[in-house]
């Protein structure tokens, strides 16, 4: 097996990926190590194009009208070097009445000075459904900058579901910027799970605009921050049309000298729209800790179990 492919498969395992499925599975896939494309496989109903332009990965994915994939598409973006810069420009288009789940695995196990910067443009067509799940593994050095920027449009009756999980290894510096426009009866469901330790820093800046009648949205954040880490959540929903519904839901556990700042922004421009928010930030419930300590765990072990349960580990 090629040395680069072997290294990236080892890194891929750390995101709970199955190398056998990545190499020989049925679904389409793209494998990228640093700024090299190691493999691309498309399938009937999808156009998958990837190339390197001036050291940047440029990818375009088009799911054709009416095609619905039972098998997820896998994208593996890894950096196995200690120092590297990986820049990705990707455009994803789901044509009308199509459906796909995209599993994105991002692994940087040895990172001391690694940058992973992604600019994404996503269009979800009429009555199409796009499910995007992104799982990260970072090493223990904290030397990673991850900065995805997404501009998305969800057309009439379309569904956009996104879940990012970064709970293993050090986060380093994570900055997410997302701006999503939703048309008539479109649905958006965004979840972010993070576990920040030491001097990790997380900035999440997400805006969803419900621009036409019947649009729905929920933005959820689940996480923990301890030691000297910092988490800033700037989550915004605009209700700009009749019968739109939106909700922002933040739940964060804090410990030590960490700082969590939640800034929900609700904008309503039509009196028939309803947008709400709630946030719960604080320490772990003492009764839960005491219950686990009664079973023989010390306080740190009990707290760790409760936190991991909350973020779905």
UniProtKB/TrEMBL annotation:
Residue span, SUF system FeS cluster assembly SufBD core domain: 81-309
Pfam family, one: SUFBD_core
Any single biological process term in GO: iron-sulfur cluster assembly
Protein's recorded name: SufBD protein
Organism: Methanotorris igneus (strain DSM 5666 / JCM 11834 / Kol 5)
């Amino acid at each position: 097996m090629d040395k680069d492919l072997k290294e990236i498969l080892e890194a891929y395992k750390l995101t709970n990926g199955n190398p056998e499925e990545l190499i020989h599975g049925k679904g389409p896939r793209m494998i990228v190590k640093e700024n090299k494309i190691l493999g691309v496989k498309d399938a009937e109903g999808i156009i998958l194009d990837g190339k390197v332009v001036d050291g940047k990965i440029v990818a375009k994915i088009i799911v054709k009208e009416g095609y619905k994939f039972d098998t997820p598409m896998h994208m593996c973006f890894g950096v196995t070097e200690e120092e590297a810069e990986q820049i990705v420009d990707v455009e994803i288009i789901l044509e009308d009445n199509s459906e796909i789940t995209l599993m994105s695995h991002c692994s940087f196990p040895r990172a001391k000075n690694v940058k992973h910067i992604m600019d994404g443009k996503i269009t979800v067509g009429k009555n199409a459904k796009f499910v995007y799940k992104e799982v990260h593994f970072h090493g223990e050095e904290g030397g990673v900058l991850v900065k995805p920027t997404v501009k998305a449009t969800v057309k009439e009756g379309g569904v956009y579901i996104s879940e990012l999980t970064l709970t293993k290894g050090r986060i380093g510096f994570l900055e997410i910027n997302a701006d999503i426009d939703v048309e008539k009866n479109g649905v958006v469901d965004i979840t972010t799970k993070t576990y920040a330790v030491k001097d990790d820093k997380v900035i999440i800046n997400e805006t969803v605009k419900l621009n036409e009648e019947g649009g729905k949205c929920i933005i959820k954040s689940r996480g923990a921050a301890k030691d000297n880490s910092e988490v800033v959540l700037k989550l915004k929903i605009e209700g700009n049309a009749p019968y739109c519904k939106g909700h922002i839901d933040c739940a964060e556990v804090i410990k030590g000298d960490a700082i969590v700042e939640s800034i929900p922004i609700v904008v309503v421009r039509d009196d028939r729209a309803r947008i709400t928010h709630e946030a719960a930030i604080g320490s772990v419930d003492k009764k839960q800790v005491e219950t686990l300590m009664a079973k023989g765990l010390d306080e740190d072990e009990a707290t760790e179990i409760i936190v991991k349960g909350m973020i779905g580990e």
